[in-house]
Fold this protein.
Amino acid sequence: MSQTQAVFAGAGLKTKLSVDHVSMVFERDGKRTEVLNDINLEVGDGEFVCLLGPSGCGKSTLLNTMAGFLSPTGGAIKVDGETIRKPDPRRIFVFQERGVFPWLTVEGNIGFGLSKLPRAEREQRVAHYVKMVGLEGFEKTYPQELSGGMKQRVEVARALAVNPDMLLLDEPFGALDSITRLIMRGELLRIWEAERKTIIFVTHDIDEAVQLADRVVVMSARPATIQQIVKIDIPHPRDISSPRYLELRDGIFQQIGLAHKL
Amino acid sequence: MQDEHAARMNLRLLWRPLAFIAVLLVLWEIGIRRQSSHLLPGPWGVVGGLADLVQHGLLLKYVVASLFRVTWGFALAVVLAIPLGLAIGWNRRAEMALNPILQILRPISPLAWIPIAILWFGVGDLAAIFLIFVGCFFPLMLTAINAVQSIPAVYINAGRNFGLGSARLVYRVLYPAVVPNLLVGLRITLGIAWLVVVAAEMIAVSSGLGFLIVDARNAGNRYDLVVAGMLIIGIIGLLLDAGMRSLEKVKSFRWGYSED
């Protein structure tokens, strides 16, 4: 598997996002911390890419620069050929947890980005996405009274409601129990197949990456570099006990330097 | 059905404190009767004092006078300190510049301002209102600064992500995010205002519950009126606090007070 080849977007896809020699150095109290080191990556339109790496490796930082929350100290990130300078509703970031606004109901959260629409249209959009994430009957409920999985659904629906081109998900299911996490992965894939957004999904869970992504970008510990990009050539729905799945997964395990024995 | 149940629950929660108060009153009355030195008026004496005040139309007049001063002093402090505090909290440099001054002014008791209040405003309502204002201003401003600084970054980032400019970010994210913390600060500060008004009225004016207490003593050692005044102050303070507390139950604020 040649690394330089795999940097480019999936075959036949128009490039949506390109990360060009991006590096990031934080300076705090006179201490220099290099977080990202010369990252190069292209993501195709409608592609599902997972950024995989150990905790604290800088993959969230990379995602934050893609969102426009942070500016890279070197290089540039472009969307549709345009350099990102600030956050934009066309790329919605889904936060690790607690990103829903606790002072708004489910309805209020999902409609948050729709305040410019006429009321009737807004209500219709909200109803559509409430249904898509399976929260009918909870429209008037405040997040405090929802489970973790339901809150995460609200956040995904809030993101989808503004019809972005891209979703940037930062370990969105990390705080959920393992059963809910599996269900949520299935739902995300269903939504992705229905709406074909470009998705960049940060995770430290190898199985999660191989279950979801078209390509898995394996990152090293800090300062993060791209170690390898693995194309997951298994059609959905994926059989997670098939030989190909296990082969790809174990390949990544080895790449990260973990023998798959406990 | 549910209301009835709730009412019965309330009664059951209330009877213990009420019974305890009744026992204390009885003990108080007995204690007063057994020794004749005038350390304190008995409960009956206080009731008589209250009746006297009502008869002379003073009770309502003094309560209104005190509430009037508290309302103005508190409202002025709220209107000035909260926007200012929010702006300062939002701007790290402003906070760093102002923080030392605030920390010096804050521990000065509002009562220490009494001479200056009288110098500036003379003896009258304005001086009392100024003292309440000073007593409320600094705690409210610090509450607002802290409230802004404790907003989780995710809310701000999410707001910006959905394309909100500064003004809309303030009223759609910043403001709702700080309300629960502000309400706690407002409740505590209203308590301070109620403490300060009594002290201010003892010196700077000739009406109100604080004046009642000093006047009752000076004009003939009417300690029944002193205690009656104290009782009214306590009850009104309790009602003010309960009123502020009920705001914390509003559903879109309540998230700020739970453990989760």
Q: What stands out?
A: The mean pLDDT of chain B is 88. Chain B has eleven helices and no strands.
